[in-house]
Amino acid sequence: MDKFLIKRPRFPSSTNTHVLNLNSAADSNAFIPDTNTPTQKRANIEFNPDSIISDPGARIPIDEYDVNIRDQVRRAYIAKGPFRPVDYTFPKNGDSRTFQANWFGEFDWLEYSIHKDAAFCMWCYLFNPKRADNSGKNAFTTTGFKKWKKALNKFRSHIGLVGSSHNEATRRYQAFKNQKQSISHVFSAQGHEIEVDYRRRLTAVLTVIQLLLRQGFGFRGHDESSDSLNKGNFLEILEWHCENNVGVGKASRSNAPGNCQLTSPKVQKELVRACASETRSLIFADIGNSFFTLMVDESRDIGKHRATSLHRFS
Question: What CA–CA distance (Å, rounded) separates 24 from 303?
Fold first, then answer.
């Protein structure tokens, strides 16, 4: 059948697979594919580690590198590390404030651009996830951040919560850097979702327990089966909480693993003990070395067992 087929070039000659347009001396060493050979294949593209630009304000986006050499570019940048000028006098901005070199010690991802007098995030530059919530959030990857008055607050908000884009980029950086552990990171995205759901589930359970402890209500119900009309305070309030909080609902009840519901009596008791321990620590810290008085009450149940309760201290 080959004699009836006409083979065409995979890539037309007018296509430039990798364009570097940086007004920098480093561009002279950067690789630009020869577009005069239409049969050239992407797999033949080579990368010169010496051609990468260290200054984050002058480098091109990682996505503009050919996909076949993108990992090589990442390895070259990781080998160099974040760009941090040494013995450099940082210029003052309009508020007479400057970038502080000691910030490098607190944030391992932080790098500084002499070209733009701005701060950048190396992890997000190399592994920034393509997510809808990243729209317009390119201060630490493209434009740079230079409002030094609010720098520390901005740096911490850039890190964000567990599910933030920065933390996801950090996990991808660690997985890429530790190639020997790559198998354990194959399911990193799924593992991250499991971790977030677990935190939501645990927070919801702990919130219900704290409420019941403050009000002095009982936890268990006479019938806690799935078809019971009244499963007791703990399960009923937890179900109400799940129904009124979409995030908690998606991570709890039937959506949670069967062995990680966090609703068993044993888990309830462990969390109650943890709350009791925290309460005692706060009381001890409040009292210190001062004198104090206790108001104690005692009663007997139907089995004539004594029960002592502490009402308050002063």
Answer: 87
